[in-house]
Every structure is written in C-alpha cells, then in structure tokens.
Amino acid sequence: MQRALPFQQVDVFAEKPLEGNALAVISDADDLTEAQMAALARWTNLSETTFVLRPTHPEADYRVRIFTPQRELPFAGHPTLGTCHVWLDNGGKARGEYIVQECAAGLVRIRHGAGPLAFAAPPLVRSGAVETSVLQQIARALGIDLARIRASNWVDNGPGWVGVLLSSREEVLALQVDYAVLDGLNLGVIGPWAGEGAEADVEVRAFMGGEFAEDPVTGSLNASLAQWLIGAGELPERYVASQGTVIGRRGRVSIGRIGNDVWVGGPVQTCVVGQISI
Predict the structure, then answer these.
(1) Do residue 10 and residue 116 come from a single domain?
(2) pTM of the predicted protein model
(3) Separation between Cα atoms, residue 265 and residue 219, nearest integer Å
(4) Residues 93 and 135 in one domain
(5) pLDDT tens figures, 165-188
(6) C-alpha dihedral over 225, 269, 242, 262, to 10 degrees?
(7) Catalytic, out of 15, 34, 48, 199
(8) Which of 15, 19, 44, 128 could lock onto 24 through a cystine, CB 3.0 to 4.6 A?
(9) What is the pLDDT of residues 133-144, one digit of tens each?
(10) pLDDT digits (tens, 9 = 90+) for 204-257
C-alpha cells in the first residue's frame, strides 16, 4: 500500500531560489527502510536527500539520515541546514538554546533566530599533512604544477575531504579537473578574492572524485576548510566564501569562529512543497 509523506525541496546557501545547492527533504520517514531511502536518493538524483526521523538521543530535537545517490553519509553541511529549515517550517521547536540534530556522526548544534541558520562544525575525523604521492595526484588531476599549491591538509569531517590552498580566486576558477586522475578523492580547493569591496573573501570549489563531479555549494567542506585555515592563520575568524560560480550558481557561505567553535551558515530558500508517494 502506498503512503504519502511530506516532501520539500529547498535551495541551501542561496540568497535567491536556484542559486545554491538543492536538497530533497522527506519528513516523518521513520517507517521507511534503508533500501527505500537509498532508492529515493537515487531517484531524486540530487547531491543529497535527507530523511527526518524521531531522535534516539535524549538531547536531540530530531534525527536525520543523509543519502547521496550512491551512499549514506554520516554528516554533510548543506543537508544539515536544509533539513533544519524544513523541520522548523513543519513546526519544530528547539528545547534549548540551540537546535540539536542527531546524525550518524553524532550531535550537531544549529544556531537559529536572528540571521540565517548556522551549524557548529563537527570535529575532524582526519587531519594533518597530505602525503606527497597524494599531492602529486592532486596536481596532475588539476593540471597544475605542484608548486602552485600553497598549502594542503586532510580536512575530513565525514565525506573524506582533502583541502588545497591556491594563491587566487582566478586560479581556482580556471581549474579543469581530470576526474579519472582524481580517482575517488573528494577534493576542496580554495583561493582568496582580491580587491576592496569584493562580494566574498574566498572562492571554493568541491570536486567529488567518486560521485557526481563538482558540488555546487558544500557546507561540510567549508566547515573543515575554515577549521584548518583559521587555525593556521591563513584566514580571519569571520569571512564569506563564494562557491558554485563555474557551474552557474551563486552560493554564499558565512563563516565565524566563536570561542572554540566554527559556525557555518547561510540562507535557505523553499522551492517545492508537497507529498511523495512511496
């Protein structure tokens, strides 16, 4: 027997609809099997589809499972903000100062109220120096000399990110990636904007080596790049990242460090509201 479930499609890190990263959110999904969730994620064919469930942790306000068309993720950034937006839109109320999301990576705090939603970046599960062989692979995949990589670090908070810093936004935008050489690496590239009055401080691109090529706007990557580069003194404690330019998006991600926490925020636009029959 078919059952209709609440369905929304939202655009995350977008000041206007169709400028950010799309996300499908299915609410009241407790009765769906994992196989059904995976099938739905393949069917929507978006970078991620999320399923809102009753929490199992006593401190959580809700639980989410996050699927790409190929696999389940323990954590992802734009699904965190987009799912929270839908949960609030459907009448969700935080029990404490922050909304607390439960996901496979643990509990994630989300700031709400004045300004856009923002999540506290979770701890990195892998950090540190990138092996020389991996850096050489990255340089070949990007089609650049190894010397053009100013800095690099493992910045994995779940999806497996490795980050590299280039000297300018223009270098970042000019990259043409050979995904066969990338061979499954999830790579984040960042470079500074130049000039007074710039719309953003840095340009970011996210190359998903094993899944769906370039991601439009990526919360998890921006979170881990901020943890690395603020900590290394390369970026200030507050800045704005631009992402998605090459693929026709205008994503904007707001970063701010408060105490030991790096907060990652941005606007969310509701684009589709309805039901999905399963």
Answers:
(1) yes
(2) 0.93
(3) 8
(4) no
(5) 999 999 999 999 999 999 999 999
(6) -30
(7) 48
(8) 44
(9) 999 999 999 999
(10) 999 987 656 899 999 999 999 999 999 999 999 999 999 999 999 999 999 999
Tokens of 163: 């980050």
Q: Cα separation of 138 and 149, whole Å?
A: 10
Under the phi-then-psi rule, with left for phi > 0, alpha for psi from -120 to 50, and beta for the rest, what region is 107?
Answer: beta
Q: Do 109 and 196 lie in a common domain?
A: no
48 is catalytic: yes
CATH of residue 164 = 3.10.310.10
Q: CA-CA distance, 220 to 236, in Å (whole number)? A: 19
Domain count along the chain: 2
Same domain, 54 and 92: yes
Taken in order 125, 35, 101, 274, the sign of the CA dihedral is positive
Domain of residue 194, residue span:
126-256
Contacts of 191 (CB under 8 A, 6+ apart): 165, 166, 167, 168, 169, 170, 171, 172, 202, 203
Q: Are residues 8 and 100 in the same domain?
A: yes
